[in-house]
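Ticket 4471: requesting a sanity check on a complex prediction with uridine-diphosphate-N-acetylglucosamine. Repro inputs:
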Amino acid sequence: MSKLIINGGKKLFGAVNIHGAKNSVLPILAATVLCHGTSIIHNCPQLSDVSASVNILKHLGCKCFYKQGTITVDTTEIKCSRIPDNLMRKMRSSVIFLGAILARCGNAVISSPGGCELGPRPIDLHISALKRLGATVSENHGLIELNAPDGLVGADINLSFASVGATENIILAAVTARGTTVINNAAKEPEIVDLANFLNSCGARIFGAGTDTVTIYGVNQINCCCHKVIPDRIAAATYMAAAAITGGEILLKDVIPSHLNAINSVFEEAGCTIKCDSNSLYIKAPCQLSRVSCVRTVVYPGFPTDAGPLILAILTKANGTSLFVENIFENRFRYIDELCRLGANVKTEGKIAVVEGVNSLSAAPCKCTDLRGGAALVVAALAAKGTTVISDIYHIKRGYENITQRLSALGAEIKEI
Ligand code: UD1
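Returned structure tokens:
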């Protein structure tokens, strides 16, 4: 089992390229199931979650090739509509294949995603929306089966919560449904816009992605296209946090700065200087990070839950006490015990964390509990005195391409063993 060894205390300097967005490439790979022909997806990061998606596509009968950040998917010979349990368990978000498989095959079978490292991960919103589109659903022995042998039919769907995955699943199911689907209270994340752009380039008719009302006019069939995935805003936030906590100064290349607005304002409140260009972002840390009054995670365009652990990590070294409220996932604080092993002073109560800044962090063995919690440990270890050993880094590999090489190039002393 590989581990990261980090010798903390080096200020980060230089430039780093931000890879394609994990949360875009996963639904786009699922969307290729709807496409007739060969889709070409550029800017795909090399991540274990991306490999898991490719393995699902291959299991369904697609031909997939990966070369230097480009994945081609030929769906001509799709013959299967079932995702086996072992592939589902590799990645909870494989539920995103449900809408696309159902629309293409008239049937879809997956195992129930159950709980995950962030707490219970219900898919009730996905299922009830697919029922509204005409699917019948049965659940037996941990399997969920959906059927729509005569095709899906457009409908108005009101989401009680602006779920990212449910919005994506509905879009995928509705693209080739008969008639019009309107999603009210849709999620507005940039990755949803990216998915809609991909599908529209293939011939879909989706309007309003990125707003809270998305309208999908069903078409008979969609073909394929070449598409470049947007940059990963959470990976960007991670390198910003690494620069901020080490007192460094870095340039992020290949970013869309407007996707980072809510994140930038928290870094600025902590005393960082940020300057944006059309596709790059410069961040300079102050000598001493300041406390921030309160960070609340909310849906886009608010502060994203996935960037929460990274901000919380830098606040452990800020001057004073900061308040942090996690509103999206009910069990997202497990990494905090590990941060405290590095000397952080954080108390949690329900969805609230109180972060008392300390003068210095110190190295200790620690373990990743989840993807972004693991990245928060890396950020903290970069500033901790001594050598930190981080285990269970397979979590980190789900979402970060070559993080060791990227941080080393910025001057960090980090290696994987
Ligand atoms: C996506 C992202 C994830 C991010 C999250 C919130 C991907 C692959 N993953 O996850 O990185 O943290 O958005 O920005 O894009 N919920 C229900 N019932 C449902 C669906 C969701 O109760 O049917 C709840 C969830 O338990 C959670 C909240 O809604 O508490 C947010 O979930 P959702 O927006 O669906 O996140 P994901 O799509 O799973």
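Notes from triage: Residues 23, 26, 93, 121-126, 161, 163-166, 191, 304-306, 328-329 surround uridine-diphosphate-N-acetylglucosamine (CB under 6 Å). Leaving this open until the requester confirms.
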